[in-house]
Specification:
Blueprint: E1 2-3, E2 6-7, E3 18-22, E4 29-32, H1 37-51, H2 56-73, H3 84-108
Antiparallel strand pairs: 1-2, 3-4
Length: about 110
Amino acid sequence: MNIGNKLIDIDNLNIDLIDSINPFQGAYEILSKSVNAAMLKTIQDQVATIRSTVTDEEAVLLWENVKAFKREYSVTPSLNANDAYERRLAEVLAYVRNKKAQQMQSQAQ
């Protein structure tokens, strides 16, 4: 996949895009989830997490800043912001969300 003129190995994206499988059809029918703004944001967060250099220690240090940003501006930090610090906070947020999803997935198994 080519996003923003940078290649991404889509095999490394850990996103479930399958909405449901209909096992009652002759050939299994796979219905994909609709690609809306929320789904694109999820994909963007996954790509940001893969490219990010955020460490556990940095995430812990900046987590309070992410929450303060949300309180002050009433929005979460954006990966598309012009401000480098806001983008870094957004990377930390994506990192934490990804870690939480991984933890929930491992608990479910």
